[in-house]
């Protein structure tokens, strides 16, 4: 059946893309100047031997890859070196063992640091994404149905404004409005060091901390979903089968729910999947403004501290989630659209 | 005399006029004072070149006009009620229960993401009483049998049907609630000749077997001769001639009808050369003064270019709008 | 998208744009900003470049008659910075969009026109670039190439073309199949002639629509980069103003003006561009104004003889 | 095909992407990282426990003293661990902490410490001389510890003959023995002995952080908060508060907003621009002063003589910068007060030498700074032959070979640097010297600066140790190839004095030498030190009282304050 080969092709390309990202990731951070020993504050107490010892600990004394001693400054080296002694192959071997190396900054394994933060990002972006999908698409459906009326223009303008606002700026304004006017917490995931009578109370505290970032997220993403949904539904409502549905005497609500929505959702699946892939990139700004200890904040900190292994791990995770999101979109599209499923 | 002369009157359209408003070119008179009747079991053919307003008139009956269209005058009497006076919800009950329609572009008329069987059932369930709903599945199978589609294709999707089968499915759907009237808008245009014949044969047999009245909109006189009991010829939004099929084919009065017949190959009377009608159909926003057909009418004289001829009654079932045929 | 609707003449463009109120608003906002950028020296009360004796109480001074929008963390007049800032932000937007357009346009055109394996390869390459999340990659490239405005423009341009490439490819594909192209090819027209005479004229308007979108994305991207400290501190873009205001305690010292005005300016330009984009989209690939469920203004005009209440449609 | 199917598929998208993100399985929200094995919480006093909340902008990089680099980590070490000596807030006097007496052999090579009896670790195990000896040997054994191993350079041997005596033999007599020991925190041998090999020592996260100091670790969430509890039976300074919480705020404005709204009781740092606002905020007391560990901002001139250029280094410094007159003129053309006013909003004092004013007696306060005088600067340059031959407002080299056009770099992580660069460009422009400003990524700047010397002028800075030796060492000729020397300055007389101060035991004699070294560098205008940054901290007056703010140095998060502060009645 054509569908099966179609998916195999997609999966093959996804794997190839991931491999490309892995290789790009490695060389990208070897081209960048930078030295783990000197990461952070300059201090005269750092002796040359200490720097050399640190470089050995991070395996940076080995050649980058056969024939290349180092990429920045570019120094050629012996080509006959055993590949397993070069940083590249060690990196690949560790990768397949699930190790992403050690952070320059905290000496802790990158995998653990990402693991701790992953849950926080999902906790923040998950509900926000669902909220913006539901609100955005609901509004989009309504605006398309009532096309060229007050509701349509209002929601269109609203979404365009929401789409044009820089995320971090909206975050800052909400942070200050929320904290000074409503007494909402200023940052972080929960009140520091607080002891909770019950987990329910703890969750309540977390929710209080989540309120403002979630609102920011929802506003920013809702605009985009609404715009896409509106154009998708407009197109569907102009199709012949909508006229047939009306001719069949169906109620407008049923026409929208049974005939228009499923057809409009098809393109939306790809857009939603793509957005889910880019969640972390989007979260960088919101988590920074709200000090929310998620992956976005980890990217910001790792960049400020030039913590290359951590950046490398985070980029890999970002690229992986985008590739997987695309793959899932393709899968879902073929499952949901009978025209592709049945070949 | 038409075959169903004595049958009770189902649909009586009187002086129906429909305008289209556009941004820059003002109002376009798509349909002007068109009147016709439909009796039980009758097959009425509505003939005319493309852009003569025939489809618009049909959509007007079911009030499915696009938002820019407006019915400016006329009455559509059906079952003793004027459809134009109904509220939207009352009209929704009439649609498909009493009057069903088969659209021209059948390719896209079925929803691609729902099974054909479900779409047919949906039409039935919408208008059936609570009790009958249970028998929806069984009813769909009988409908598919009627139109010659095998039952096991019920759960397939529209894209798995050929053009002809999709048209048959549309017909099945149209008959889901056994309506009194079915409007078929160019049912065979997009199909090849062989399939065309089968579809026409199917329509004819359904009309005889379950007594449903059918309006067939077409630009193909062959279809009219084959299937219809009476014919309404339209040109530039007006009713040029309206008669039973025998009178029309043998004693057409309106110059346009005669030219139409000449332009059509006829096995019974060999013609050496088919005459084509010079000129083009009028653009609805730049209609000529006087008779719409005047610019292309070989028999046109000065009055035709000035005045618009009214519809004159020539026989019990025969009328035409042309000065030549006006009783002196 | 048939030829007739493609209003190539500017007057025709304005005629069709005029009908869409949002597009007009967008055009006004964009033109206003461009004028502001052009006549910055005349409009700005102070020249941000020349040195001015600054004392501590000049820092984050509240809006006053001397400084309509107060001063920033270096005592410089926010209003003048804002006006000069339009120049930087617009240049970043236009040039980055130009680069994206050039790359995306060519790749899309070649992929669409040549087709086959070449198309597959180019499109897979586009997917890969799309997959790599651009913000982290930009961070690395800017950190690598010393933060300067030119580098930022190049970096945003290099990574912003995937959308344009896909659009141009699909448009080229659809035009390539057109009869008049096949006919031209059959009478021996060369590839370049075909592209120049047929493909490009119909692809170009869509690229224009996409450009407006890409420009607004570039401006947003620049401000995000500047916010996380990757901008060029020696330039005077809105993003940099936001970064200074945010990192040097703008809010905590109550200097809302230093933070709100640049943010507002960004929203003003980006909104203007997107509204204009919507309008152009409607002109170049007009979708039906209405659809089957549109509420008819008045389905049946009141017939003189009998009062027909036909539009008491209940909300279904 | 009801729409339920669509919503299910949407959720599937979410779950699939989530599960696929990274190989790691997300743990449930860790309620408490690791419960300390230490004694249970202090018996809950009848009243609510006094919890002091502190807000700061950073977070410790790691809790392992060996590998830690950031100041935040050292703040925690000071609270949780003890050392042999404790540095007082005047910046140069040391008091014994773990030991109650010490005697030094005549030749200054053998230091014998008598340890106070009855000291316990937080897990109840007694602290003995053996733990101290183990700790010092442990630091010496790991050369790749960034900072702490360098303090054991002069240790020949460290032994503990019995539980209360520690004997340290030195390779040479050194004057600043106390400053070497204040950072060598004493680790519990019974825990750290399991982590002696190289990788284990570095990978040990030490989250339980068992020490003997006035506070003990309760919970640590990196980049979120650190929760400490008071060690009520500390032998020297039992704290009056019951618990301490350090909360991290990623952006500075949130920090200020936190103290305004009372969400925290004290903040250790703030953006300078917030100072005016906080001065007037109700029940918030703002305090400014020299920081405990001073940070020096310096304008570096690349004055490397070509013959000193290290192998495969670029050495592209502008020749004019080797001429003292040019550096002197630029010193006169630098308006330090304006830089402080604009870049630091007045929160700094004009600087003179690498040794900051916070280092107490070591700071040569007798030096008279170069006055900001554009005319004087122009006069010096005219006299030295740097005329503006082509009239473009930029002077040329005497031989007309090149204009005085200097590349001015700074690292992008110094917040005030861009504004400082702007002002330097302005005032230097008035004396005919043009600069090309360029921000740099810190690591890229390291690669360009040292030991490559591929620059003209850099605005950078140093973190400083309480003892001046390390900082002054960066100006010796031998440091040029190592990269520690930024200026490429090489002065034999200075090198000789550096060696001499390393071996002078007598404090006043050593002070004279160090003052003389600072005068030489100052006269040669090797650097321009625009300012020493002041620390600005604030605390809620309605929450806790007793903060130590009358000392020459200011550090509210130092044990000196945190062990004496008590809730406002």
Give the SSE layout.
The complex is a heterotetramer of chains A (343), B (328), C (316) and D (569).
Chain A: H1 2-31, H2 48-57, E1 68-71, E2 74-76, H3 87-96, H4 110-145, H5 150-164, H6 167-182, H7 199-237, H8 240-247, H9 252-277, H10 279-289, H11 295-304, H12 308-336, H13 338-341
Chain B: E1 9-21, E2 27-39, E3 43-47, H1 54-61, E4 69-78, E5 81-82, H2 88-94, E6 99-102, H3 106-109, H4 116-127, H5 130-133, H6 136-147, H7 163-174, E7 181-185, H8 193-210, E8 213-218, H9 221-227, E9 230-235, E10 238-244, H10 245-251, H11 255-262, H12 302-306, E11 312-315, E12 318-320
Parallel strand pairs in B: 3-8, 3-9, 6-7, 7-8
Antiparallel strand pairs in B: 1-2, 1-4, 4-5, 9-10, 10-12, 11-12
Helix pairs in contact in B: 4-6, 4-7, 6-7, 7-8
Chain D: H1 4-20, E1 51-56, H2 71-80, E2 85-87, E3 94-96, E4 99-104, E5 110-115, H3 129-141, E6 155-162, E7 165-170, H4 177-181, H5 189-192, H6 198-203, E8 215-221, E9 225-230, E10 243-248, H7 252-260, E11 266-267, H8 275-280, E12 284-291, E13 295-301, H9 324-332, H10 336-343, E14 348-350, H11 374-383, E15 405-411, H12 417-429, E16 434-440, H13 442-449, E17 457-463, H14 469-473, H15 492-503, H16 507-523, E18 527-533, E19 535-540, E20 544-545, E21 553-554, H17 559-562, E22 566-567
Parallel strand pairs in D: 1-10, 1-11, 12-21, 15-16, 15-17
Antiparallel strand pairs in D: 2-3, 4-5, 5-7, 6-7, 8-9, 9-10, 11-19, 12-19, 13-17, 13-18, 14-18, 20-22
Helix pairs in contact in D: 9-11, 10-12, 15-16
Integer-rounded radius of gyration of chain A = 25 Å
Q: Low-confidence stretches of chain D at least 5 residues in length (pLDDT < 50)? A: 1-45
- Percent of residues of chain A in helical segments? over 70%
- Could you give me the name of the CATH homologous superfamily of one domain in chain A? MetI-like
CATH architecture of one domain in chain A: Orthogonal Bundle
CATH class of one domain in chain A: Mainly Alpha
Main sheet: strand order of chain A: 1-2
Distance between the termini of chain A: 7 Å
Mean pLDDT of chain D: 83
Regarding quaternary structure, what we see is heterotetramer
Can you walk me through this structure?
- The complex is a heterotetramer of chains A (343), B (328), C (316) and D (569).
- Chain A has 343 residues and is mainly α.
- Chain A contains 13 helices and two strands.
- Chain A has a domain of 227 residues: MetI-like fold.
- In chain A, strand 1 and strand 2 form a beta hairpin.
- The longest helix of chain A has 39 residues.
- Chain A is globular, with a radius of gyration of 25 Å.
- The termini of chain A are close together.
- Chain B has 328 residues and is α/β, with parallel strands linked by helices.
- In chain B, helix 4 packs parallel to helix 7.
- The longest helix of chain B is centred in the middle third of the chain and has 18 residues.
- The radius of gyration of chain B is 20 Å and the shape is globular.
- Chain B starts with 8 loop residues before the first strand and ends in an 8-residue tail after the last strand.
- Chain C is mainly alpha-helical and 316 residues long.
- Chain C contains twelve helices and no strands.
- Chains in contact: A-B, A-C, A-D, B-C, C-D.
- Chains A and D meet through helix 2, helix 4, helix 6, helix 7 and helix 9 of A and helix 1, helix 6, strand 8, strand 10 and helix 7 of D.
